[in-house]
Amino acid sequence: MMGHSYSCDRCDFEFCSGWSHHAGGLFVVCPSCAAQFTLGDGQSEWGPREGETLRLMALGPDGEEPTEIRAVIHILPRENDEEWDLVVRLNFGNVPCPQCDTDEKLIQEFDAGQSCPQCHEGKIERTGSCIY
Ligand SMILES: [Zn+2]
Ligand SMILES: [Zn+2]
What we know:
Number of strands: 10
Strand order of the largest sheet: 3-4-5-6-7
Radius of gyration: 14 Å
Bound molecules: zinc ion
């Protein structure tokens, strides 16, 4: 399982995208408050099924804590998008961030130069790959 790693050029914010079989879910992050979650709790830790409903899991001090937020997963085709080589990419619709009161929707990737959700001053850069 692979993902893309991102970090901020000003602070210590880091995010790894993609599906992790350790976490049993897809890593997602709030672009407003930097809270990180996984979309998981599905039938397989190796990946979701098309149309499967997954649950948003918060990453608390004692591990994953289930939230009441669920999302139906659609697996996006990869073959025409080499940029996403080997990285699981899902369409999970609009999932609101349970940590903040904004209308921000959780994201699974950053655009190059996107502003940092933690310090709001730095810019997010893609720094490499994550292998799970
Ligand atoms: Zn948030
Ligand atoms: Zn930052």
